[in-house]
Design goal:
The complex is a heterodimer.
Chain A: E1 4-11, E2 21-28, E3 33-37, H1 44-51, E4 59-64, E5 67-68, E6 79-82, H2 94-103, H3 111-125, H4 140-152, E7 159-163, H5 171-188, E8 192-196, H6 199-205, E9 208-213, E10 216-221, H7 223-228, H8 233-238, E11 245-248, H9 254-258, E12 268-271, H10 273-277, E13 284-299, E14 302-311, E15 314-320, E16 329-334, E17 338-341, E18 344-348
Helix pairs in contact in A: 2-3, 2-4, 4-5
Chain B: E1 2-8, E2 17-21, E3 26-30, H1 37-45, E4 52-57, E5 60-61, E6 72-75, H2 87-97, H3 102-115, H4 131-144, E7 149-153, H5 161-178, E8 181-186, H6 189-195, E9 198-203, E10 206-211, H7 213-218, H8 223-228, E11 235-236, E12 248-251, E13 256-257, E14 269-281, E15 285-293, E16 301-309, E17 319-325, E18 330-332
Parallel strand pairs in B: 3-8, 3-9, 6-7, 7-8
Antiparallel strand pairs in B: 1-2, 1-4, 4-5, 9-10, 11-12, 12-18, 13-17, 14-15, 14-17, 15-16
Helix pairs in contact in B: 2-3, 2-4, 3-4
The chains are: A alpha+beta, B alpha+beta.
Chain lengths: 352, 335
């Protein structure tokens, strides 16, 4: 496994006027679970293609450990990839699928060593019981496990790239696959880069996340940091379901405005739907009119809803077990906020 | 009213079911992969399918009618548009077939394009649109048919998460305004709450339950029904009976409380000890996974997930005393 370093990597398609990727620097630790999060068109796939050697960067260097691999062809970088749909040899057994990459590429492993490696990986993924079955006679869940197994089986793999591996599966399978992935990542200390547009996937899988938009990394940090202290308004909007609420700071009462640091007041305050919903004596209050209601479930027998409120020009989402009707005026307590100016974070009232 | 009688969603199913989709309402059909959702859609639309059964639109029998003779529009999971027609021509295509006059056609195209937020793209080809825009176009074209029945088969599944979140909210209003009877399939219980006036649950090509989203959430009749309306699935109580006569006891992940959660005391609390295996934090919520062993000395161990709003600090390996409210325990049939 390897530490992956990107040094000022950028990419512009030949003939294009705008770069697809702005200069990006990243340092992914050996054995780290790392996630690239962004919408389609943000540059995630381009970044993956640069890593795997499918595209050459327009500028910058790529290092695997201390080796400069920028000019190295993809097949010599020892990457493994897992895709959205499991890619398997349908005519082979599960065991043959797992062993395949060990029997090619001038592999020096003998039969015994290959069998040992295959059974070790099968044990880790808990698929020992299906090793002899044909790859087209197993469930979608098992197929994706085998695809992950194929990526992990080679002892010389430097990094495993996972490209939306859970997008195509139903929710119940998603939970099991993600836990298995995490377990294998912990046990084997594999460097994994997980690419997704789904914030829940990214935040629950990764030790650190990079949020991409328009070919730029807006923020890199732990899931807690990017969620609680977004460096850019887009990050606050993109993480969370629904995302962060944004209100012009002059919508707030005077005492809050006076509390802003002398360095200049933020233009916009961001708060999470959960922070906004719960009342506390010390919290700042403003009010909004209920426009929409979506039921989330129940808590202690009471229906919990996500309410959409109109506060002047802004729409604010609030999670609450209280029962409101459309048109009701509701007070919102704001316990924790993050201040932004020109979309960038300039402060917050909570711990950084 | 759109009625289906004696429906068998695949060849392997022996027992048929009847169902009525109330006129002007939106029914979310919720089921996993291979649960028969697409077969049901195809049956309603009159497309070739393994599913068999009668379809009645009010007093009119549709069973033997071709898709063109039914007042039904379909949106599929994959974006289907006429590739060499512009956005405007695509939206207008059903109106041409219906011989709507020029003036009315232009007016409808403009209004639908505006509603779906693609009015700036009228002269483009589908290949020049993003995935989200292509699916909006497919929805606009389906709406242009002004059909009595609108069938949407996982229409947003191929879109980015954030885009899906925004479109689901828009669709709710948009589809309600059409007055059509809407059938919308999904695997995600959140869609049932966000969109459904009614929900139908499918499991292994059978209808397991139908009702309002809240009724199905509060009173699932079987384990399969409870799992379908829960993401992650429900937790089984350890040591509890689990035989086909008595069924089983279960609890929703969001109805289990972590130790020390404030102002969450209740009289009939049950306590279970769980050893934590892993913790997932999505920001909005914390999911704690672990193993629960019953106090009554049985060896029956269950894997549980606890789902709580907000960020909670819990460590792997920790032993937690979980509390749950007696009233939240579900008594479920096993089939």
């Amino acid at each position: 496994m390897a530490r992956i370093r990107l040094q000022e990597i950028a990419f512009t398609y030949p003939g294009a006027s705008e770069p697809t990727l702005q200069p990006i620097s990243l340092d992914i630790q050996d054995g780290e679970a790392f996630s690239l999060l962004g919408a389609s068109g943000a540059g995630k796939t381009t970044l993956l293609n640069l890593l795997s050697g499918i595209l050459p960067p327009t500028q910058g260097r790529i290092f695997f450990d201390d080796v400069d691999v920028t000019e190295l062809p993809g097949r010599d970088r020892h990457l493994a990839q897992v895709f959205q749909f499991p890619v398997l040899y349908q005519s082979m057994s599960v065991a043959q699928n797992l062993a395949f990459s060990l029997t090619t590429r001038g592999s020096t492993l003998n039969r015994e060593a290959i069998d040992k490696r295959v059974s070790a990986i099968a044990k880790e993924l808990n698929i020992e019981s299906i090793l002899k079955r044909s790859a087209n006679a197993i469930s979608l869940f098992e197929k994706q496990l085998v695809a992950i197994g194929r990526a992990l089986v080679r002892p010389d793999v430097s990094v495993v790239l996972l490209d939306e591996p859970l997008t195509a599966v139903e929710p119940s399978i998603k939970w099991r696959l993600r836990r298995t992935l995490k377990h294998v990542q912990d046990e084997l200390g594999v460097t994994m880069i997980y690419v997704t547009h789904d914030q829940t996937e990214a935040l629950t899988f990764a030790e650190r996340v990079s949020v991409l938009a328009d070919g730029q990394i807006l923020q890199t940090g732990t899931p807690e940091a990017v969620y609680q202290n977004p460096a850019h308004q887009f990050v606050g909007h993109f993480l969370g379901s629904p995302g962060m609420n944004f209100l012009p700071s002059n919508a707030f009462p005077q005492p809050l405005q006076r509390s802003f640091a002398a360095g200049g007041a933020p233009e916009t305050l961001g708060c999470r739907p959960v922070c906004a919903g719960s009342a506390a004596p010390s919290a700042v209050l403003l009010s909004g009119i209920v426009e929409t209601q979506r039921v989330l479930g129940t808590a202690q027998g009471r229906v919990v809803s996500m309410y959409g409120l109109r506060c002047g020009a802004a729409q604010v989402f609030v999670r609450s077990p209280a029962s409101f009707a459309c048109g009701d005026e509701v007070g919102i307590a704001l316990q924790r906020w993050v201040g932004f100016r020109e979309f960038l974070r300039v402060g917050s009232n909570g711990a950084e | 009213m759109l009625n289906v009688n004696n429906v068998r969603l695949s060849d392997s199913v022996t027992q048929g079911f009847d169902h009525g989709f109330a006129a002007g309402e939106m029914t979310v059909v919720l089921g996993g992969n291979q649960s028969g959702k697409t077969n049901l859609c195809r049956l309603l639309a009159g497309l070739p399918t393994q599913a068999a059964g009668e379809v009645w639109h009010g007093e009119q029998e549709w069973t033997a009618l071709s898709p063109q003779k039914r007042s039904v529009a379909v949106v599929f999971q994959a974006f289907v548009n006429y590739p060499n027609w512009t956005v405007a021509q695509n939206i207008a295509s059903p109106l041409l077939a219906q011989r709507v006059d020029d003036h009315e056609r232009k007016r409808t195209v403009a209004s639908l394009a505006r509603t779906l937020g693609i009015d700036g793209l009228l002269e483009r080809l589908p290949s020049e649109l993003s995935g989200g825009q292509q699916q909006r176009l497919a929805i606009a074209r389906a709406l242009a048919q002004r059909a009595d029945v609108l069938v949407l088969d996982e229409p947003l599944v191929n879109l980015d998460y954030k885009l899906r979140e925004a479109l689901v909210l828009e669709l709710k209003t948009l589809l309600a305004e059409t007055g059509a009877t809407v059938i919308y399939t999904s695997t995600d219980p959140r869609d049932a709450f966000a969109l459904g006036d009614q929900v139908m649950l499918l499991h292994e090509q059978c209808r397991v339950q139908a009702g309002t989203p809240l009724a199905l959430y509060r009173e699932p009749i079987s384990l399969a029904a409870a799992h379908l309306m829960s993401d992650p699935g429900v937790n089984l109580l350890p040591g509890a009976n689990r035989d086909s006569d008595k069924g089983c006891l279960a609890i929703r992940p969001e109805h289990v409380l972590l130790p020390g959660e404030a102002d969450q005391t209740f009289a009939d609390a049950k306590v279970f000890d769980m050893q934590v295996d892993s913790v997932e934090r999505s920001g909005d919520e914390t999911f704690v996974h672990g193993r629960v062993i019953s106090n009554d000395n049985t060896t029956n161990e269950q894997h549980w997930v606890v789902r709580r709003p907000g960020m909670h600090s819990v460590s792997v390996g920790e032993m937690l005393a979980l509390r749950l409210r007696g009233e939240d325990i579900l008594n479920l049939a096993l089939n």
